[in-house]
Amino acid sequence: MEWLIVVVFLALLGLAGWLLKPANKCELLKPGQAAPEFELTDQYGNTQRLVDFRGKWLVLYFYPRDDTPGCTRQACAFRDNFNKLKTLEVEVVGVSVDTVSSHDRFANKFGLNFSLLADTTAETAARYCSLLNLGIVKFAKRNTFLIDPFGNIVKVYWSVQASQNAGEIVSDLKHLKQLAHVEA
């Protein structure tokens, strides 16, 4: 009987490994690399592309689902730090695999003052190594990318803490801008 339990346990582990495999093989993005292009629709129905942000700093953050506790904390922290981020001349954009209408409801409910992009095909999340594929259900992983005005990744925040991410970005941008000022 014990061997049957072991066999079933091992079979379940194998099934879990198959279900939790990455959506595609993705080489993790690193600072200095060009950020992958994207073309996605925001909560207002406008198409936004990476190239639209050239000449500006960009915080591109991926999150699992609209209106869930962690995602709400993260979005509201970006909302609450919006003036600091604007002072640092950075744009904030959130991305999940939710729909445009879901993003619209989420942004309106919490007064979000930045764009939320609908990656309904999950292709952008996959290109940014930020896709969790659970078979028929896909989620974006909670990762954030700081992208410079030339479209290059400056910093990657893997598996961020929802409530701390916006503060980390503000702190890191202040530091980066101080370094740039010293070098100039």
Automatic annotation (TrEMBL):
Its EC number is 1.11.1.24. Keywords: Antioxidant, Disulfide bond, Oxidoreductase, Peroxidase, Redox-active center. Residues 29-181 form the Thioredoxin domain. One of its GO terms (cellular component) is cytoplasm. GO terms for biological process: cell redox homeostasis; cellular response to oxidative stress. GO terms for molecular function: thioredoxin peroxidase activity. It holds the Pfam family AhpC-TSA. CDD domains: PRX_BCP. It catalyses: a hydroperoxide + [thioredoxin]-dithiol = an alcohol + [thioredoxin]-disulfide + H2O. SUPFAM superfamilies: Thioredoxin-like. InterPro entries: AhpC/TSA, Peroxiredoxin_BCP/PrxQ, Thioredoxin-like_sf, Thioredoxin_domain. Gene3D superfamilies: Glutaredoxin. It comes from the Bacteria. Monomer. Belongs to the peroxiredoxin family. BCP/PrxQ subfamily. Thiol-specific peroxidase that catalyzes the reduction of hydrogen peroxide and organic hydroperoxides to water and alcohols, respectively. Plays a role in cell protection against oxidative stress by detoxifying peroxides and as sensor of hydrogen peroxide-mediated signaling events. This is thioredoxin-dependent peroxiredoxin. It comes from Nitrosomonas marina.
